[in-house]
Specification:
This protein is mainly alpha-helical and 160 residues long. The protein contains 6 helices and no strands. α1 runs antiparallel to α2 and α2 packs antiparallel against α3.
Length: 160
């Protein structure tokens, strides 16, 4: 590996780490000395996640790049170089305004939709469920439990 290319890769790593260390180093020092600091967890946590992912890609692909440097036309070299560039881009996207405005809301939307199970049940199915719960002694035969079960399925969990 030539000295210039080694310096280029080294500079990429230094840039990413310094870009990460500057704002979070200040926050870490303030946290250690119990000083107040601004921390928006809805932006900073995803940013740290993407930085960690990008740095992991950069580090894992660098060893393959270094190994196949003498034969740069091989598949392993080219794919590792592309993975390294992807990792570098992934760490830099997090500092853009688009990341705050577009990426984070889209991720929240995707995560929010997975929490909604959209269970639908008919009254006949619910009555059969309740009867079988009573039959196998899983619940006591009480009218208020039956009303609560119906209310839970038809009105939602928080509105019994």
């Amino acid at each position: 590996m030539s000295v210039l290319s080694e310096l280029l890769f080294f500079a990429c790593f230094i840039y990413v780490y310094m870009r990460l260390l500057y704002p979070y180093g200040i926050i870490l020092v303030r946290f250690v000395f119990t000083e107040p600091f601004k921390w928006n967890k809805y932006i900073e946590k995803p940013r740290l996640f993407f930085h960690g992912l990008g740095l992991m890609l950069m580090h894992f692909s660098f060893s393959t790049i270094y190994q196949y440097w003498q034969t740069p036309q091989t598949f392993y070299f080219i794919s590792s170089l592309l993975v390294f560039i992807l990792g570098m881009v992934l760490t830099q996207i997090t500092w853009s305004r688009k990341f705050k405005r577009i990426v984070i809301p889209k991720i929240k939307e995707k995560l929010k939709s997975t929490k909604n199970f959209n269970i639908s049940i008919t009254e006949l199915q619910l009555a059969r469920l309740y009867d079988n719960l009573v039959r196998y002694d899983m619940v006591l035969n009480r009218q208020n439990f039956k009303r609560g079960l119906y209310s839970m399925f038809f009105n939602g969990l928080g509105r019994t």
